[in-house]
Design brief:
six-stranded antiparallel sheet; about 35% strand; about 15% helix; mainly beta; endopeptidase fold (from Nostoc punctiforme)
Length: about 325
C-alpha cells in the first residue's frame, strides 16, 4: 500500500532559491551526499572540511558561484552553489521539523522509482538525511533538500527520530563505530566515509553516535575533561581522545583511546596503534609526541564544544 506523509507540504518548500542579504546571515541545507568545503572560493583551494546531505548550515556570503557557510560545529569555509540549497528561515525550520530518514549503510543509491533497476538519482552515505514522503513496499519515498524526489531502500536507512532516540554515546558504541572504518583512507579535510583526516575521523565517530564535536584536532583538544597522562596511561579510559604534536600549543594529530595502551586513528588510513613499546603495532613516532588527553563522554551538553544533535541549535 502506498501512502504519503502529511509532511509533504513542509518538504516541497525547498524549491525556490533565495538570495543572501549582504547584511544578514541566511540559511542553507547540504544537497549532495558529501560536499567538499574549501578554505577560499576556488577549486584550487585547500579542502578544510566536508558536510553531509541534509546538514543545516548558516549562509554568510555568496560570490561568483561560491557560498561561504558555517557548519553546526562552527567551521567557516566555502562551498560551490551546487552543494547548498539556500532557504528562508521559515523553510529552514520546516526542514528541521519535517520527518526525515537517515542513511545507516556505508553507501547506497537513491532511485527514480522503487526498484534497484530504475535510474539513479543520487548516491548517499552513512549519516546523510533526506525528507520522508511516504513508503512503497520496501522503499521510502524521499525528497532531497534541493527538491528532487527519489526512492530509498528501507534496509539502508532509519527514521531520523527513531535513530536519534536510539543513540547511546558510550565508549563501547563509539569504539565499535570507529572500528567500522578500519582501512578507510586518510583524506585531508575529510569528515565522511569518503575519506577522513584525524579529527574528521573522531568527529565522524562521535557524530554517528549523536554527538557533534569541533572540527579540528587543536579545537577538540580545548574541550572535554583533562586526563592526567604525565606519569602513565593508567587514568585513560576507552573513548578518551589523545592528542599529539611537537608541543602543547601545536596539536597536530588526534586519536581515540580504546584501552590496553592502544588507540585508533586516521593516519595514512584508519588503523589501531599502540603506545606501549614492544607491542607489534607500537607507534614510536606518536608515542614520543603524546601531549594530552581529554575525556569527552562526561562533558556532553556541558561543554559548548561537545553537543548532542538533539540539543544543537542548528537542528531545532
Amino acid at each position: 500500500m502506498y501512502r504519503l506523509s502529511i509532511s509533504f507540504f513542509s518538504c516541497i518548500l525547498f524549491l525556490v532559491s533565495l538570495p543572501v542579504s549582504a547584511n544578514e546571515p541566511g540559511y542553507g541545507i547540504t544537497t549532495m551526499s558529501v560536499i567538499n568545503l574549501r578554505q577560499t572560493p576556488s577549486f584550487a583551494a585547500e579542502m578544510g572540511s566536508q558536510t553531509l546531505m541534509g546538514t543545516p548550515l548558516r549562509i554568510l556570503e555568496t560570490t561568483n558561484g561560491w557560498i561561504r557557510v558555517m557548519t553546526p560545529e562552527g567551521y567557516i569555509s566555502w562551498s560551490t552553489e551546487s552543494g547548498v540549497k539556500v532557504v528562508s528561515e521559515t523553510e529552514y525550520k520546516a526542514w528541521n521539523a519535517a520527518p526525515k530518514i537517515i542513511i545507516t549503510d556505508y553507501f547506497t543509491t537513491l532511485f527514480s522509482k522503487p526498484s534497484s533497476t530504475a535510474d539513479v538519482v543520487s548516491d548517499v552515505v552513512w549519516g546523510d538525511m533526506v525528507c520522508n514522503l511516504g513508503e512503497k513496499n520496501s522503499y521510502y519515498k524521499v525528497q532531497l533538500p534541493d527538491g528532487r524526489t527519489a526512492y530509498l531502500k528501507k534496509k539502508s536507512s532509519m527514521p531520523f527520530v527513531k535513530w536519534l532516540d536510539s543513540r547511546r554515546p558510550t565508549a563501547a558504541n563509539i569504539i565499535s563505530t570507529a572500528k567500522h572504518f578500519i582501512g578507510f583512507p586518510y583524506l585531508w579535510g575529510g569528515t565522511s566515509i569518503k575519506g577522513m583526516d584525524c579529527s574528521g575521523f573522531t568527529k565522524t565517530c562521535y557524530y554517528l553516535n549523536g554527538i557533534i564535536l569541533l572540527r579540528d584536532a587543536s579545537e577538540q583538544a580545548q574541550t572535554g575533561e583533562d586526563v592526567d597522562i604525565s606519569q602513565s596511561l593508567d587514568l585513560l579510559q576507552p573513548g578518551d581522545l589523545i592528542f599529539f604534536g611537537p608541543k602543547k600549543e601545536s596539536v597536530r594529530h588526534v586519536g581515540m583511546y580504546i584501552g590496553n595502551g592502544e588507540f585508533i586513528h586516521s593516519s595514512g588510513y584508519v588503523h589501531i596503534s599502540s603506545l606501549i613499546s614492544g607491542a607489534p603495532n607500537y607507534d614510536a613516532w606518536n608515542a614520543e609526541r603524546l601531549l594530552c588527553a581529554k575525556r569527552i563522554l562526561t562533558q556532553i551538553d556541558l561543554d559548548p564544544g561537545i553537543v548532542s544533535i538533539s540539543k544543537h541549535s542548528y537542528y531545532q
